[in-house]
Amino acid sequence: MLVRLSDQESAELFAECPLPDDGTPLTTAVEPVVDSSRYFVLRVVDKETTKHAFIGLGFRERTDASGFTTGLDEYRKYLLRKKEAEAMKAEHEAQENGEEAGH
Asked: How much is the pLDDT for 102?
């Protein structure tokens, strides 16, 4: 999953901020600014060189910032559900293998 920053008129890609999906905290990629709900710091990464930089992202409207935060929260929930589903699958497979071994 990525936060993509692109030119509003040309849609040309400016930068991408990869969001972790390996259990690493999301704040390693997107950090809210302490004293404002409308500003964030993004860790953008160049795909070709893997070099990274930190850039600021600000929203003029609080509702836009709220939508961005909601999107990040939904991604966090998705990762949690995915992790729970994988654990349930592993438990189910372990139970099936245990039952098959007893035959």
From this structure: 45
How far apart CA 92 and CA 14 sit, in angstroms, is 44
Give the chain as a 3 state SS string: CEEEEECCCCCCEEEEEECCCCCCCHHHCEEECCCCCCEEEEEEECCCCCCEEEEEEECCCHHHHHHHHHHHHHHHHHHHHHHHHHHHHHHHHHHHHHHHHCC
Tell me if 42 sits within 8 A of 28, measured CB to CB.
no
> What structural domains does the chain harbor?
1-99 (2.30.29)
Over residues 74-86, the pLDDT tens digits come to 999 999 999 999 9
pTM, two decimals, is 0.76
Tens digit of each residue's pLDDT (9 = 90 or more) over 11-36: 999 999 999 998 889 999 999 999 99
How do beta strands 52-58 and 2-6 pair?
A: unpaired
